[in-house]
């Protein structure tokens, strides 16, 4: 939401796919965006109730298998086809890609829809995981603050090739060693086309909510007449349990130093 | 120009554990088992030579696995591969880091190499997970640099009772801590033998400052859901899968149970027709050898 708006934006419901991974982190940042109601999505009913969906970081194979078991894959595919925005981070990027290299033996189920080919563990094992600062695209910069953003890459994928019409939102310039290994100078790590956005890094591990604001802008732009809140969110399933499950509080957001917290 | 990058930062170490939340990490001893685990939806595998139940049966000194086997498992799957080092054995940890494992478990399941000191985990770029029985032990491991914590439970027993005990000990202590006056934290820190700074952080956060998994005795989907409802972030399953009658089905069921831990109808469905569970050990049996008590 641009600053200085006279009327508050209408409420809009955004879901986070809560099968596995960093869904709580996404929810925390989404809740900081004005006018957004956040829902955990595990079932078809929950998916139907939201106007946009974030597929979080985690293990793409795990998410695919759990989603498949409950028949969620076709529902997820038709969600994006119906013009509802989806943003995938890391594992979510792999999920949205039309093609992926370095998949597990026998391949894995992808949702597809985004005309990119990704390399699953482009940067290698965890010791090659890293963080850096990258130049921010216009849709992120328009929400103010700095011209760059903190990008955290955890066993991250990268985009090897993007089809025509795919908007490049972020690129990472390789180090000399990486250049020697991959035979290229840079890779694409953030893309957007139509209702689909994908990032190889994890904005949900930082205090920068501008990527979430940019996604909410997309959801608002596509929400249309309904205003993005079709009916009520289904109630949580806790009623059947006789006790409330202990929900662990949110993880803090860390800087580079040991236990050095950053405030959201 | 190449981007300035920092690897091995605390955010990056904790970040991988955050990506594993809501998932199941499975013990595997061969590339074939690793493939079964990946196909079942494991978020990571723990490569080790013998599962804890076999270590208990065979006895002797349990050490870090042969690098050949770890490499074979790394080559077989795309999900993260963890491996165990003996408590205090920082050279085993150096070897595992050189092999490019994604996480090191400094584990009481292996025979400790140092009965007093743990590994100084700050010296490594690869992140570590360590076991605990209570809040003090968890915070001592974090002070040493652990970026992820798990309950110790009693590995290789198929008996969830100790994991529940350790989980409740940590969670209960955190709830108690949150009611304390700030002036009381110094003595409390002394009593639980943990740095006061960490105690203060836990009071503020209302949780451990790192991701916290259940481990040591989880054998069924219901066990896994129990640990999740108690407030854990995810589950390690060791002997419970490959010591059961039908590992693939059981592994799949436990993965589903950790996602849908709140949904008894789903739990009923996934608990059906799993074949024989692993034969458990009652830890009150005479001569029971506790692994959890091998370190503090």
Strand segment count of chain A: 14
CATH architecture classification of chain A: 3-Layer(aba) Sandwich
Approximate helicity band of chain A: 10-25%
- The CATH fourth-level homologous superfamily of chain B: Aldolase class I
Hey, roughly how much beta strand do the residues of chain B contain? 5-15%
H/I helix tally of chain B: 13
The CATH first-level class of chain B comes to Alpha Beta
User: How would you write the strand order of the largest sheet of chain A?
Assistant: 2-1-3-4-12-11-10
- The CATH class of chain A is identified as Alpha Beta
**How far is it from the N-terminal to the C-terminal residue of chain B, by CA?**
48 Å
Structural domain count of chain A: 1
What does this 3D model show about the protein?
The complex is a heterodimer of chains A (264) and B (296). Chain A is α/β, with parallel strands linked by helices and 264 residues long. Chain A contains eight helices and 14 strands. In chain A, the strands form four sheets. Chain A has a seven-stranded mixed sheet. In chain A, strands 5-6-9 form a three-stranded mixed sheet. A two-stranded antiparallel sheet of chain A has the order 7-8. The longest helix of chain A has 14 residues, at 210-223. Chain A is globular. By secondary structure, chain B is an alpha/beta fold. Chain B has 13 helices and nine strands. In chain B, strands 2-3-4-5-6-7-8-9 form an eight-stranded parallel barrel, surrounded by eight helices. In chain B, strand 6 (128-132), helix 6 (135-143) and strand 7 form a beta-alpha-beta unit. In chain B, helix 2 (31-40) runs parallel beside helix 4. The termini of chain B are far apart. At the A-B interface, helix 1, helix 3, strand 7, helix 7 and strand 13 of A face strand 1, helix 1, helix 2, helix 9 and helix 12 of B.
């Amino acid at each position: 939401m641009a600053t200085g708006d006279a009327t508050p934006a209408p409420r809009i419901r955004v879901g986070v796919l809560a099968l596995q991974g960093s869904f709580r982190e996404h929810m925390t940042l989404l809740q900081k965006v004005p006018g957004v109601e956040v829902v955990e999505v595990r079932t078809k009913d929950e998916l139907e109730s939201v106007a946009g969906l974030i597929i979080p970081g985690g293990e793409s194979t795990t998410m695919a298998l759990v989603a498949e078991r409950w028949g969620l894959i076709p529902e997820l595919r038709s969600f994006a086809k119906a013009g509802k925005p989806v943003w995938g981070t890391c594992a979510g990027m792999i999920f949205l890609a039309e093609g992926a290299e370095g998949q597990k033996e026998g391949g894995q189920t992808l949702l597809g829809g985004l005309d990119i080919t990704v390399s699953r563990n482009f940067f290698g094992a965890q010791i090659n995981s890293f963080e850096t600062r990258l130049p921010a695209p216009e849709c992120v910069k328009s929400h103010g603050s700095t011209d760059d953003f903190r990008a955290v890459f955890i066993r991250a994928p990268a985009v090897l090739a993007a089809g025509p019409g795919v908007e490049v939102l972020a690129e990472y310039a390789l180090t000399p060693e990486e250049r020697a290994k991959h035979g290229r100078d840079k890779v694409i790590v953030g893309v957007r086309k139509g209702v689909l956005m994908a990032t190889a890094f994890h904005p949900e591990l930082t205090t920068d909510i501008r990527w979430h604001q940019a996604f909410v802008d997309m959801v608002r732009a596509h929400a249309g007449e309904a205003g993005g809140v079709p009916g009520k969110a289904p109630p949580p399933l806790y009623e059947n349990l006789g006790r409330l499950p202990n929900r662990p509080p949110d993880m803090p957001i860390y800087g580079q130093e040991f236990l050095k917290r950053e405030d959201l | 120009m190449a981007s300035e990058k920092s690897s091995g930062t605390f955010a990056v170490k904790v970040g991988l554990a955050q990506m594993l939340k809501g998932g199941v990490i499975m013990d595997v001893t061969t590339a074939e088992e690793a493939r079964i685990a990946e196909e079942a939806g494991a978020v990571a595998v723990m490569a080790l030579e013998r599962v804890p139940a076999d270590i208990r049966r065979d006895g002797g000194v349990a050490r870090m696995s042969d690098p050949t086997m770890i490499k074979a498992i790394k080559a077989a799957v795309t999900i993260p591969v963890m491996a165990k080092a003996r408590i205090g054995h920082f050279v085993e940890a150096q070897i595992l880091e050189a092999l490019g494992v994604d996480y090191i478990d400094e584990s009481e399941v292996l025979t400790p190499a140092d009965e007093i000191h743990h590994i100084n985990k700050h010296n490594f770029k690869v992140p570590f997970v360590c076991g605990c029985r209570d809040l003090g032990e968890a915070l001592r491991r974090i002070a040493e640099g652990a970026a992820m914590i798990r309950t110790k439970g009693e590995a290789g027993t198929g008996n969830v009772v100790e994991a529940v005990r350790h989980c409740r000990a940590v969670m209960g202590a955190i709830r108690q801590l949150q009611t304390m006056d700030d002036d009381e934290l110094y003595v409390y820190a002394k009593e639980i033998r943990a740095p006061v700074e960490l105690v203060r952080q836990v009071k503020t956060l209302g949780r451990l400052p790192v991701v916290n998994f259940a481990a040591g005795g989880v054998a069924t989907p219901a066990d896994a859901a129990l640990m999740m409802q108690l407030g854990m972030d995810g589950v390690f399953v060791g002997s419970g899968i490959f010591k059961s009658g039908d590992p693939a089905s059981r592994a799949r069921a436990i993965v589903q149970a950790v996602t849908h831990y709140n949904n008894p109808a789903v739990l009923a469905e996934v608990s059906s027709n799993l074949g024989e569970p692993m034969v458990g050990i009652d830890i009150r049996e005479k001569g029971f050898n506790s692994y959890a008590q091998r370190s503090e």
